[in-house]
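Re: [ENG-882] Designed sequences occasionally contain unexpected residues at chain ends

Forwarding the minimal case from QA. Structure tokens:
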């Protein structure tokens, strides 16, 4: 089992200042207690894309990280965003890549990493060149959303429509790319989307779209660990993820995965804490959307 030793660097905050020495020492001690035999840990991924694309993206990453951390990370994908949210709420995953951990009803996950991708926004988009040019054009129209569980694709944009008094007919597509496909096919007037997923989908599919509204930015999706996972395993997995973009092999894995979904640099992950995601928690607290799951 190979473990990187730059623990202070891994757990430095965004300003470059290191965390308290006692904390770093605690993590280093936990690493020493890792079991010799690899164990399986369920790694849940928010259902944004098809299961095939999600697996093609994540399996090489999880294989590399697991080998570095001395564990086996087993990808778990729910069929829809709602089912993904429900599985997270039940605590089905040992680790999870999802913003559903910020829902008020979820208590047992703690953020350990965040994606290095640029901050993401919730958007309301329409096909370029179509008749919809302004949010007011959506009154009475069919507008698509991934599901009522989707933060960027539903809670954030639907909150804006409610606050503006624009009544639409919601249509749900199961996941982000499912509703984008309906928009491309002309079955809906507009869609609520995650800016990053929309950009990747449009690049792959050659789809031109118009942004009607965009929210303030939110940090990229986090990786969170369930409270039942041993601290030694959490530390090892966190360190392996954070080291991905620092090694030649890790960079190759990330680049190949990014090519699958059209993701642009910067790639990889960095250490994070719940404090980095206060904006998510605050939005859930004050949203006027009532069917948040």
């Amino acid at each position: 089992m190979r473990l990187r030793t730059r623990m202070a660097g891994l757990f430095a905050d965004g300003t470059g200042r290191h965390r308290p020495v006692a904390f770093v020492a605690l993590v280093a001690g936990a690493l020493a207690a890792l079991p010799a035999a690899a164990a399986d840990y369920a790694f849940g991924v928010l259902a944004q894309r098809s299961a095939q694309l999600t697996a093609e993206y994540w399996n090489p990453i999880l294989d590399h990280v697991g080998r570095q951390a001395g564990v086996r990370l087993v990808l778990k994908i729910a069929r829809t965003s709602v089912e993904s949210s429900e599985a997270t709420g039940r605590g089905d995953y040992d680790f999870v890549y999802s913003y559903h951990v910020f829902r008020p009803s979820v208590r047992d996950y703690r953020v350990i990493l965040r994606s290095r991708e640029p901050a993401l926004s919730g958007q309301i988009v329409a096909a370029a060149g179509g008749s919809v040019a302004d949010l007011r054009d959506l009154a009475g129209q069919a507008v698509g959303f991934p599901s009522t569980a989707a933060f960027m694709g539903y809670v954030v944009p639907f909150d804006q429509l409610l606050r503006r008094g624009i009544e639409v007919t919601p249509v749900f597509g199961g996941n982000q790319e499912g509703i984008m496909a309906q928009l491309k096919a002309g079955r809906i007037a507009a869609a609520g989307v995650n800016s990053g997923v929309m950009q990747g989908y449009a690049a792959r599919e050659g789809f031109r779209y118009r942004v009607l509204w965009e929210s303030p930015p939110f940090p990229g999706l986090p990786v969170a660990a369930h409270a039942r996972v041993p601290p030694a395993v959490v530390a090892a997995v966190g360190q392996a993820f954070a080291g991905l973009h620092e090694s030649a092999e890790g960079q190759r894995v990330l680049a190949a995965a990014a090519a699958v979904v059209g993701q642009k640099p910067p790639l990889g992950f960095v250490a994070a804490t719940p404090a980095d995601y206060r904006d998510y928690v605050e939005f859930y607290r004050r949203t006027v959307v009532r069917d948040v799951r």
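QA comment: On inspection the terminal residues look reasonable. Confidence is low (pLDDT under 50) at residues 1-36. Proposing we downgrade this to a documentation issue.
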